[in-house]
Design goal:
This protein has eleven helices and no strands. The chain has one domain (about 30-170): Orthogonal Bundle (Hypothetical protein af1432), CATH 1.10.3210. By secondary structure, it is mostly helical. Helix 3 packs across helix 8 (about 135-150) and helix 10 crosses helix 11. It has helices at about 30-35, 40, 45-65, 70-80, 85, 95-105, 115-120, 135-150, 160-170, 175-185, 190-200. The structure holds fe (ii) ion.
């Protein structure tokens, strides 16, 4: 005989408050070592930039399923990805950031393919998916930076809970205020600065 109704499941259904896992990456000796050279130059924004690097690393390594073979490359690219903001004092800072990475790669023996590092820096603001060499790493960094730069307005497939977990674990430390301040300083006004970022950095 077939019962009219199935009995209730013997376990509670999952609720939305149960946030899916995301591995927080908030320390790397490579990042600390590479960033330390620029502490003086980054000045008051150092804690903010450092934590931005770790949040983006957390998202990127999540997309890359913690692939250890690319971790050092991603970490290195992230140290340099926005560095030109402080070294070149310009909103069009991608090329200056790449130049710093190339300069340091010559001076220090990173044991990495510098072209992959530079590609990850060069394409990290690209709005649409990058198609070209090293696409897996480049797109992981690109998607990860979009999430943090927009403070989760774009989540690139992550849930609100996952982004909130990362933001709580690795605090902002004034990073987005610093971006706004620099846009004003380098662009003449916040609005003009933002427009210049859109035109020159995002190439819209
Ligand atoms: Fe960034």
């Amino acid at each position: 005989m077939v019962p009219k109704e199935l009995p209730p499941a013997p376990y509670p259904a999952p609720t939305h408050s149960e946030a899916p896992e995301i591995e927080i990456v908030d320390h790397s000796s490579r990042i600390e070592e590479l960033l330390a050279r620029y502490q003086k130059c980054i000045g008051q924004d150092f804690a903010g930039y450092r934590n931005h690097v770790y949040r983006v690393l957390t998202y990127a390594m999540h997309f890359l399923e913690q692939d250890e073979s690319v971790r050092s490359t991603v970490e290195t690219a992230l140290v340099y990805h926005d560095l030109g903001l402080w070294t070149a004092h310009d909103l069009a800072y991608l090329e200056p950031s790449e130049a710093k990475a190339r300069e340091d790669a010559v001076r220090q023996d990173w044991g990495l393919d510098i072209e992959t590092v530079v590609r990850a820096i060069h394409w990290h603001h690209k709005v649409t998916p990058y198609r070209g060499p090293d696409a897996r790493v480049v797109n992981a960094v690109r998607r990860a930076d979009w999430i943090d730069a927009t403070q989760g307005m774009f989540r690139k497939g992550l849930s609100k809970d996952q982004v909130a977990r990362v933001e709580n674990a690795i605090p902002n430390e004034g990073f987005h205020d610093a971006l706004q301040r620099l846009a004003t300083e380098y662009g003449g006004s916040a609005l003009r600065g933002n427009l210049r970022v859109l035109r020159r950095v995002f190439q819209l």
